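Cont'd.
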Amino acid sequence: MPIASIRHRLTPMLLLPVLAGAGLAGCATQAAPINVKTPGFGDNATGVVQFWDRSTTSPFGQLLVNKFNATHKNLKVVLTPVQDTQYVTKLATAIRAGDAPDLVGIDDINSQLFIYHDAFADLTPLVNALPEKSKLSPGALNLTTENGRYYGVPYVADMSVLWYNKTLFRRAGLDPDKPPTSYAQILSDAKAITKLGHATYGFGFAGRCEGCLGFTILPDIWATGKNVLYGQPGHETAYIAGNVPLEQTLTLYRQLWAQGLSDPESQVETGTTWGKDFLAGKVGMMPLGYGPIASAPASIRSQLGMTLLPAPSGGATATFDGGANFGIPLGSKNPSGAWEFVKWALQQQQQSLAPAAGFEPIRSDVLTPQFEAKYPFAAAMLQGVSRGQAPKTIVYNIAFNQPGSPWLNMFTAAVFDGDIAGAIRAGQGAFSTAISLGKS
Amino acid sequence: MTQQTMRTAARGRWAESGTAGAARSRSGKRRPGVVRQPKTGMLFAAPAFIFVAVFAAFPLGFAVYMSLTNWPLIGSYHFTGVHNYSALGRDPGFIHSVLFTLLYTGIVTIPILVVGYGLAVLVRANRRGSVFLRTAFFLPYVIGLPTLSYIVLLELQPNSGAVNWVLAQLHITNGGTAWLVNTDLALAATCILVIWFASGLTMVLLLGAMNGISGDLYESADTLGASWWEKERYVTLPLVRPTIALSLIISIIGSFLAFNQFFILTQGGPGTSTFTVVMWIYQTAFVDLHVGAAAAMSIVLVAVVGLISFVQFLLLRNNT
């Protein structure tokens, strides 16, 4: 048979696998539900638990896993850290591929996305049976709830506050025991500190890190009682145009940048060296979590003070109730083992270790005099938990937490390009588009 | 058997299999002495067929099906017909990424060829050090684009990167240029990186073609008193034209599928100004979780790249 003829016979034959691919695509299935009411669920489990933790919280996760594995002979937990901006992508892909991990430590603001798509097991009876249920952080617990049922539990807290350098305050003639309580004070304090010269700046922020910016700026708006997103998960609307606190916030950051009061690194900081210049004593004020401070030398920590994030006009404060939640994906191969680890990780003894890794516990009864003496900053943050908020939405990842998100674009256009009105106008449309993309 | 007779015999066999073979299969009769059997041919083609079926045709069919559904990365899906395709024209992000990719391709293609050609001219003679230079020029390609992108990312940092340091030492800038937060500067920096990276491959391809040109031709040209430029223009260039076409196509397709360099250097920013088509597909599938829409974009991209390859084959056929 001539070559040409073989080719003419084989080419149509290649259509077969094309059609087979299309046919198989039509057979994708959902994972089966997990029955948590089986007697003995979460007790004396054996085998291995594959645990995916977001890379930010994984230092705490690893600390727990090491301790757990050292004391549990028959059950082992294996931790895989997953980069924060990739977490939703990787977990969704793994679930789609039918190869979900047994347990996830997911950014609490992304929990709703997976709960909404029925990807996590209903843990309601288990959560109700927890002895510490009433002591768990209500804000974080709320993010695991849908229609009154629990699809997860809080795992660890990561709150944002305004840190300031008391030494620089003193040198600039400011009272080191009086941190700013309004935007006007932040601006005047920043001016006083920048005047010190020698590459010292009043303020610092991570201008190319969308996650960092949401974490440290949204609380200012929440402190006024306003929000940027409204509506239940799956029914969100964006409130950008005409949002006065939002405009005030963008204006403050524009002033801090345009007047040269901010560390020049702020424009290019992607979050990888977040807080570096602040901890080097070159920046007077910086909104941050506890992580970078916890790992700083004691000589620097002793110079620092903190306060909750103020509303633009003062009079109120707030914090981002961030961190991570536990969830058991449908398709988990060892859900009983996963829950055994979760119960253990929620115990007071384990939770009190959180500040050692740069985080805050998610249960209120950890706050003992000993804890306060050992971790004064973490204790103070924990006391502010009632001022904490986190967006309960399925669109946070797409609207805020991605490179090129409407949130980052709006911030960039307003703060670095100086077009606040244009940024807000474009932002309203971009947020609405992102929300409809996230919902469909 | 002499070479001549072998060639005649071979030609005869091809002719027979081409015409008489077809007649035979219709009549069902076999002529004695003909070794070619349909099954043998199929057997030889089978490995390639299976490979293409499993790794190209099957996934393509899967993708076509997905492109006709809403296919979210998590959750259930349903048929949406050609909605994903008709929505492409209304997606400003997709259109912008296509235009940006075309702009980027337009900027880098000719410089990659010109620089690659120049480097090939520089290192084609067996002079002292030419082996070293060849290795040095090809090294960026061997290191790989992701690694180079990370190096460049560090070297472009304001006040600390080497690029800014050198520019400051030369008193061209103050050393504080934030390259990657400005669309034009970021595009310029990325294009320079890619030209540096990709011209090595063009050089190697052209070097092979140039070394394949018979020395006799240059000797004849010398006898005729041709200058260096005339030899380059009338001997080398026409003979390496097919290779130029090949390297152009490789670089154009490479630019069309650009991802690594922008993903690492700009993450598509500032805003979404430096999103390439493939990044937009990635974003749609894995961030927006709309795999169906992303599949539709991919199918369109496959068609465009297929068209480029088709044009390439036409060009090569005409030239040889």
